[in-house]
Amino acid sequence: MRQKRPANIPARIVETDTVKIARMASKFSLDMGFPVHLIGRPGTGKSSALWHIAQDMGGGYCEVSAQSRSTKGMFQMLLGTLGIADDHKYISDLSDDVYRCFMPINRYCSEAGCFVDVPHFLVVDEVQTLEATALRELLRVQEKCSLGLVIAGNAERLATTRRDAATWAQIESRIGMQRHLPGPSICDCELIGAAFNVEGKDAYAALSAYGTRTNFRDLVQLLETARRMSGPETGHAVGIRLIHLQNALSTLTARTGAMKLLNPEDA
Ligand SMILES: Nc1ncnc2c1ncn2[C@@H]1O[C@H](COP(=O)(O)OP(=O)(O)OP(=O)(O)O)[C@@H](O)[C@H]1O
Ligand SMILES: [Mg+2]
Fold first, then answer.
1. What's the CA-to-centroid distance between 79 and ligand 1, angstroms?
2. What is the extent of the structural domain holding 55?
3. pLDDT tens per residue across span 192-241
4. Where among 159, 180, 201 does a domain terminate?
5. Which helix (H) or strand (E) holds 91?
6. Are residues 44 and 113 in the same domain?
């Protein structure tokens, strides 16, 4: 089922290192039947990458919120990715529905010339918000339904919720693969800069200096501000140059020394 794109996810994404790692991890989880945990600092592009990957793979994407952090809320969230609104009162009824709906689908495979079981693929984002028991139940669904499952979140917040040591130990033993996602590389900054029509060697050097010291969110915010500033009053669209990046940064922050972030020499 094609999901409606949330407002915080860009319509198109650039193939950054984060996207490549997330794509490889998603495929690994689906092929091997192991859950994969992707960890990244805020703004590393987890949600953007995983929403698009889930859609490309015909899977579902969901983000844990205050309403879905309990086991009951988590089950309802999973069913929601299939477009099912389930208001069963009892957790046991909800879990029955989840197990039934997420069992592999028996489909004819023309390559194999026979019917095969095709597992579902799911992404659960902001997983650090889940209660420990809800996360354990999620991993149980993965195991019983042979789901391809990627869980993603911020390590910082996950670490502060380790209350139930036994449950966490059980959870960790069930996670097949864990990867830390990198921040923007120089190559990532150049790719994003090209997508925003940045012009000039000096502008690319400044952009790379800025991106590698911040994150994708700050980088894209700078470029969006610079794009607005580079559109002359005449209405002609021109490329983003170094001066536009400098003006955009001084508009975004009044912090002293912020301009150094654009200086490749100031690493
Ligand atoms: N591959 C990409 N292509 C284009 N823009 C991107 C890409 N990755 C991230 N961005 C930009 O960076 C912003 C932040 O990315 P995203 O929300 O995916 O990060 P996150 O790791 O999920 O952050 P958080 O931990 O705060 O949830 C996006 O809104 C988007 O503008
Ligand atoms: Mg996110």
1. 25
2. 17-180
3. 999 999 999 999 999 999 999 999 999 999 999 999 888 764 455 679 99
4. 180
5. helix 91-101
6. yes
Question: CB of 13 closer than 6 A to ligand 1?
Answer: yes
Residue found by looking up tokens 């190559």 in the block: 187
* 14, 46, 48, best to mutate for ligand 1 pocket (most atoms within 8 Å of CB): 48
Give the whole-angstrom CA distance, residue 55 versus residue 116.
22
Residues 16-26 have a mean pLDDT of: 97
CB 168 within 8 A of CB 133: no
Pocket test for ligand 1, best of 220, 221, 222, 227 (most atoms within 8 A of CB): 220
Q: Assign residue 41 a region: left if phi > 0, alpha if psi is -120 to 50, beta otherwise? A: beta
What 3-state class would DSSP assign to 238?
A: coil
Indicate whether 259 and 132 sit together in one domain: no
Claim to verify: residue 33 and residue 90 sit in the same structural domain: yes
Task: Look at the chain and report how many structural domains it folds into.
Answer: 2
